[in-house]
């Protein structure tokens, strides 16, 4: 069974466990196993700080996964979640195919303008997100299920 690591800031939602169950159920509909970050057991006791335990559990899950599906939508500002960006980079380095979904796939400078609020130029490559993410990720406009459906089709994983 294909394993998909589910990356995104949904782990910070008040109903994060329920969201994870919903995402895993969608994966199951497509004959895949979803690996949701909150499923890894990280005991409070021990020498390592909890942050290190979470980091190790999540990177191990990415290693176990066949694919990564990531939420690319803005989180706490105009850009995607930085933890998700790291997970994408880690997955790319590990040679895992990455698919990402975004609700607004217009070019970044159409969404933000040519300069940000601090006067920095906004890149103009016609991409909906920073070029490093866009060039390493198959981007799907839509939601989690749209992304899974597209990944299954493009990767030839239909049943």
Radius of gyration: 16 Å
Strand tally, please? 5
Within the largest sheet, what's the order of strands?
2-1-3-4-5
- Domain count, please report it: 1
Average pLDDT over all residues: 95
Major β-sheet, in short? Answer: 5 strands, parallel
What is the CATH architecture term?
3-Layer(aba) Sandwich
Instruction: Based on Cα principal axes, name the global outline.
Output: globular
Q: What name is given to the CATH topology?
A: Rossmann fold
Run of helices and strands: EHEHEHEHHEH
Reading off the top of the CATH hierarchy, the class is best stated as Alpha Beta
Q: DSSP strand (E) fraction?
A: 15-25%
Fraction of residues in helices?
25-40%
| Alpha plus pi helix count | 6
SSE class: alpha/beta
Could you give a quick summary of the protein structure above?
The chain is of the alpha/beta class. The protein has helices at about 15-30, 50-65, 80-95, 110, 130-135, 145-155; strands at about 1-5, 30-35, 65-70, 100, 140. The longest helix is centred in the middle third of the chain and has 15 residues, at about 50-65.
Polypeptide structure, described:
This protein has 159 residues and is α/β, with parallel strands linked by helices. The chain has one domain (2-154): Rossmann fold, CATH 3.40.50.450. 38% of the residues lie in helices and 15% in strands. It contains six helices and five strands; from the N terminus they run βαβαβαβααβα. β1 (2-7), α1 and β2 (32-35) form a beta-alpha-beta unit. The termini are close together. The model has no long low-confidence stretch (mean pLDDT 95).
């Amino acid at each position: 069974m294909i394993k998909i690591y589910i990356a995104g800031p949904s782990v910070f939602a008040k109903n994060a466990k329920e969201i994870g169950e919903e995402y895993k159920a969608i994966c199951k509909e497509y004959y895949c196993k979803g690996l949701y970050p909150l499923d890894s057991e990280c005991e409070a006791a021990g020498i390592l700080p909890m942050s290190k335990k979470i980091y190790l559990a999540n990177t191990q899950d990415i290693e176990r996964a066949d694919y990564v599906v990531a939420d690319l939508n803005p989180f706490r500002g105009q850009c995607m979640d930085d933890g998700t960006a790291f997970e994408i980079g880690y997955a790319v380095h590990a040679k895992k195919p990455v698919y990402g979904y975004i609700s607004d796939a217009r070019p970044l400078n159409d969404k933000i303008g040519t300069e940000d609020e601090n006067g920095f130029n906004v890149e103009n490559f016609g991409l909906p997100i920073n070029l490093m993410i866009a060039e390493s990720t198959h981007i799907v406009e839509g939601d989690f299920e749209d992304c899974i459906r597209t990944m299954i089709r493009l990767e030839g994983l239909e049943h």
